[in-house]
Amino acid sequence: MSTPALEFNDLQLAYMVRGQAREVLRGVSFAVQPGETYGLVGESGCGKSTAAYTAVRYLPTNARILGGDVHLAGRDILSLDKKELQNLRANDVSIVYQDPGQALNPTIKVGLQLMEAYQLLGQSKHDALTNSREILRKVQIADPESVLGRYPHQLSGGMQQRVVIAMALACNPQLIILDEPTTGLDATVEAEVLDLIRGLRDEFGTSVLFISHNLGAIRAMCDRVGVLYAGKLVEEGRAQDVFDNPQHPYTVGLLRCLPRHGSRKSAQRLETIPGFQPLLGAPLPACVFVDRCPLATEKCRSVAPEWTQLGGRKVRCHHVDRVHELVSSALPEGTPSTVDRSSTPMLVLDGVSKTFHQGGQAIKAVRDVSLELFAGETLGLVGESGSGKTTLAHTVLGIHAPDQANTITFDGKNLKPGTRKRPADQVRGIQIIFQNPDSALNRRHSVRRIIGRSLRRLAQLPHSEVDGALQEITASVRLTERHLDMRPSQLSGGLKQRVAIARAFAGHPRIVVCDEPTSSLDVSVQAAILNLLGDLQHDRDTSYLFISHDLRVVRYLSDRIAVLYLGRIMELGPAERVFDGPHHPYTEALLSAAPSVDGDTRERIRLDGEIPSAVNQPSGCVFHTRCPRRLEGDLCSTVEPPLTPTPDGGVIRCHIPFDQLGGQPVALRS
Amino acid sequence: MARYVLRRLGLAVITLFILSIVVFTVSAVLPGSVGRAILGPFADKRSVDQLNNELGVNGPLVNRYFRWVSHAVRGDFGNSYKYKSPVMDFVSKALTSSLKLALLTLVIVVPLGVIGGTIAALRQGKALDRIITITGLSLAVTPEFVIGIVLILVFPVKLGWLPSGGSPKGAVLDQLKTMLLPALTLTAILFGYLSRMARAGAIEALNSDYTRTATLKGLPRHVVLRRHVMRNSLLPTIAVIASQMSYLLGGLLVTETLFNFRGLGLLVADAARGKDIPMLMGAVFIVGALAMTMSLLADLLIAWLNPRVRLGAKQ
């Protein structure tokens, strides 16, 4: 076998915290072969990013290598001197990470930053410019000349990531490390970036180390994967084998936390992995997963499991022969949906528009949206960034005032624009759960104080009753007494989100806006939060406006789904129909963009270009500039299609008759 | 950018207008008759009235304001009561001296502050960082008269190296010698602010993703620092320099008095003491206008350096 592009040999790495070594990587070994794409998966804190930065020796000053070595292109990178390391970075390895907007220097033109990489290789200015132009073409940027002359902030997120990838390719490296390269990008853009990376990898024969929490993306990209848990690899094998037939209890659990196979809250609860990943540097039992493993025995506590070889793959578990017991265990029952659609809707939007005025321009964020939300129902809001879903939710909450008054009715009464103008019961009646509980909770207050304040202010309970209510609400979000005196910073992401949920539910709201409530959480935590939201809805008959870019999550929790594009409803209907078809061409494209953990066999529907600006919206159907099914002639580009009712009580905005729309369940099916 | 410049200029004109009203109003409501103040308590009422008429301090307030403004825009602030000659001559002389002092101070403090701050950032948490930070802070909180007096005691009095005060005159070298101590006093005060800003800016830039990108691209350390770190860390520092410019120009009072340096600060102090109203108005107005011009220039410089402002950020 030829020399691997990257090889970790029993690497042990610790961070020094107050003079104590906290182990992050506890003997990690793996190799990325030439031309291979290797994926590292695992939840936050498992050490996957540390592994990535160890490969380029870019570590914080408190990092200590305790043992083992790392070879990149055959060289021991831990023994290189400064100059050699710099050469290695310039010639042999590149790294792309999340948030491309931050990765580019805001004060230097894209062209100069790109040329820098070539000039570093000793090229003249002229050659560097020619090559920069060429590489931008390779990453499918149509107009390299204009992009070279722009600053990073003048490019969209997808374009920025293309530029970063181009920069990474400039030195024609043997290895590219991709650390969450598509996190934060829209599904459609993510799909394009992944396609691009795949194409370039095949063209250049580059090896890739791919790190992502998005298991679908890993499945779509990687030849082999390694599953990392608490700084130790627990399973490794071909991507297909590991995802389709996981053999380690942790991998099994991880995959079953995901809402898959079109699962719905009404059918089954999501499985979770009980307990928590051990903290950094915590003393570990013999098997790292033993405390959370349903198969654990005495042996797992006393003898550390070595690799068990299973024909081309390996698992670090004593009980490989018993893993099938896990797989066959039945999923717990879900909570049947009890939405009464003949009752008066809880929320009615009747032609709501929201226009922002900025610098003399009118930004039409939401256009003429009409919908109903019933008690106990979840309405999913789906669309790319810029589709107006958050603006719409904020308008309902009273953060923005709609263009026309009296277009929103809540519980039979007109909803005033602006929270300050609303009576207390309306404010209490509509609450929100934010994406990031870190910034939503006051870090100086204890959990008791945060929830207690909501009980006093929202539920307007007298002091004597606050304690009782506090116990009750805390129990219903599965927090314990012990958590009450902690501050948010002492809690994990999932626990923080529970506090945020308790806060939102304190005043017995009728409607809760969930704005990406699980997108900053790990999959096992996400599953627990989704179960909790399902339970609370069932117990309290609360309605949700649910925003998420993860379509599986939306499908799991939603009864009906509204698909938005440029502030308009393109389609609204029951969740199953919207997902399984017939659906709007935009919905179809959106669904096909999301990579699936179950492997992609279908062709992805490509959308040309990016979502147009909300200032200069296209004429006719706003989607016609990107629509793969645009009709011959100029009907689509001149006449905006009306919202046509569908047999299932929904609406679709398309000139193509309902029965001729895509009937294939394009994605998330399997 | 053009839009931004226009808006900023419009704002400057309005500020100037408000400044003129404030300066005028304050001087108009000062107690006591001007004529009486000049002629003294024993002059007879007729001559006081006549003098008031001649000085034009009698008519309605609005008329007087417009007369003053229409002269002021032509650079005529009237005659000093005390010296009986045009205010503008004194103001422009004092202004030149003050600007020289300010310039010398900046030439010393800007490189010192920026380099000191950046070094502190690079050695974050280490001894050198502590030394720079603590020195800067201690100097910044020490009153300028203490620093000034210490400097005077050490250099002119003990060592006899430099003059203990006076105004810049004669050969360039002599002028520099005269200005060095006041400039060092001001430097001591400003260094703390400046180095702290430079340090904070550099730390932010050092920890940013684009610095990581640059490093992992394989760029040599000095290129990373020069091209990627310094460029971004200087933005907030310039803002501080700009805001401290007003301090330099307007708040020179103590330092100038201490060193008997005939600049704007001393001029204002003397005019106020001697109830020399036209002189006071002219000097204060010029100081205000100058401070405003400086902050305008600084804002434009920041905008020009920051492409997100220059080209208008995407919403």
From TrEMBL, chain A:
<dbReference type="InterPro" id="IPR050388">
    <property type="entry name" value="ABC_Ni/Peptide_Import"/>
</dbReference>
<dbReference type="InterPro" id="IPR003593">
    <property type="entry name" value="AAA+_ATPase"/>
</dbReference>
<dbReference type="GO" id="GO:0015833">
    <property type="term" value="P:peptide transport"/>
</dbReference>
<dbReference type="GO" id="GO:0016887">
    <property type="term" value="F:ATP hydrolysis activity"/>
</dbReference>
<keyword id="KW-0067">ATP-binding</keyword>
<feature type="domain" description="ABC transporter">
    <location>
        <begin position="6"/>
        <end position="255"/>
    </location>
</feature>
<keyword id="KW-0472">Membrane</keyword>
<keyword id="KW-0547">Nucleotide-binding</keyword>
<dbReference type="InterPro" id="IPR027417">
    <property type="entry name" value="P-loop_NTPase"/>
</dbReference>
<dbReference type="Pfam" id="PF08352">
    <property type="entry name" value="oligo_HPY"/>
</dbReference>
<protein>
    <submittedName>
        <fullName>Unannotated protein</fullName>
    </submittedName>
</protein>
<dbReference type="InterPro" id="IPR013563">
    <property type="entry name" value="Oligopep_ABC_C"/>
</dbReference>
<dbReference type="GO" id="GO:0005524">
    <property type="term" value="F:ATP binding"/>
</dbReference>
<dbReference type="InterPro" id="IPR003439">
    <property type="entry name" value="ABC_transporter-like_ATP-bd"/>
</dbReference>
<dbReference type="InterPro" id="IPR017871">
    <property type="entry name" value="ABC_transporter-like_CS"/>
</dbReference>
<dbReference type="GO" id="GO:0005886">
    <property type="term" value="C:plasma membrane"/>
</dbReference>
<keyword id="KW-0813">Transport</keyword>
<keyword id="KW-1003">Cell membrane</keyword>
<feature type="domain" description="ABC transporter">
    <location>
        <begin position="347"/>
        <end position="591"/>
    </location>
</feature>
<dbReference type="Pfam" id="PF00005">
    <property type="entry name" value="ABC_tran"/>
</dbReference>
TrEMBL record, chain B:
<dbReference type="GO" id="GO:0055085">
    <property type="term" value="P:transmembrane transport"/>
</dbReference>
<feature type="domain" description="ABC transmembrane type-1">
    <location>
        <begin position="95"/>
        <end position="302"/>
    </location>
</feature>
<dbReference type="Pfam" id="PF19300">
    <property type="entry name" value="BPD_transp_1_N"/>
</dbReference>
<feature type="transmembrane region" description="Helical">
    <location>
        <begin position="234"/>
        <end position="259"/>
    </location>
</feature>
<dbReference type="InterPro" id="IPR035906">
    <property type="entry name" value="MetI-like_sf"/>
</dbReference>
<feature type="transmembrane region" description="Helical">
    <location>
        <begin position="279"/>
        <end position="305"/>
    </location>
</feature>
<feature type="transmembrane region" description="Helical">
    <location>
        <begin position="101"/>
        <end position="122"/>
    </location>
</feature>
<keyword id="KW-0472">Membrane</keyword>
<keyword id="KW-1133">Transmembrane helix</keyword>
<feature type="transmembrane region" description="Helical">
    <location>
        <begin position="9"/>
        <end position="30"/>
    </location>
</feature>
<dbReference type="InterPro" id="IPR000515">
    <property type="entry name" value="MetI-like"/>
</dbReference>
<dbReference type="InterPro" id="IPR045621">
    <property type="entry name" value="BPD_transp_1_N"/>
</dbReference>
<protein>
    <submittedName>
        <fullName>Unannotated protein</fullName>
    </submittedName>
</protein>
<keyword id="KW-0813">Transport</keyword>
<keyword id="KW-1003">Cell membrane</keyword>
<keyword id="KW-0812">Transmembrane</keyword>
<feature type="transmembrane region" description="Helical">
    <location>
        <begin position="134"/>
        <end position="155"/>
    </location>
</feature>
<feature type="transmembrane region" description="Helical">
    <location>
        <begin position="175"/>
        <end position="194"/>
    </location>
</feature>
<dbReference type="GO" id="GO:0005886">
    <property type="term" value="C:plasma membrane"/>
</dbReference>
<dbReference type="Pfam" id="PF00528">
    <property type="entry name" value="BPD_transp_1"/>
</dbReference>
